[in-house]
Amino acid sequence: MRKRYEELETDDGTVVRYRRHDNGGGLVAQTASVDPSAYVAETAWVDPGALVGGGVRVGAHVWVESGAMVGPHSRLGTHVHVGREAVVGAGARLGSRVTVGAGAHVADGVTVESDEHVPDETVVARDRRTSARAA
User: Fold this and answer.
1) CA nearest 86: which of 72, 66, 115?
2) 30 domain-assigned
3) Phi, psi dihedrals of residue 115, rounded to the nearest 5°
4) Is 130 domain-assigned?
5) N or C, which end of the chain is more exposed by having fewer CB within 10 Å?
6) Can you give the CATH number for the domain in which 80 is found?
């Protein structure tokens, strides 16, 4: 039987407690808000202050950092990293190994293809593909 929670110490010595999400078993910080209908894969982490909306699917090995917001019905592939204070809009799709930088914003319904990097503070307002980068 796996543990229901984990505790980690940050670089500044603060201890953060993560609990297992009922739908998928991923680790969710006590001060994060993850809708019960969201799926959080067992190897995913949602940091303190992050918000994950209803119907979201968070894939394996995903890290949602502090203060990030993931809108309802979004899909995060495997090995995705959503940076601090970043926003992933409702219905957005992030392929595997996507990195969304700190403070970046992926608009509602936008698809970011696998292996793409969205730089810090960037706004992605249309689909982002390897062959045609969005503004």
Assistant:
1) 66
2) yes
3) 70, 10
4) no
5) N
6) 2.160.10.10
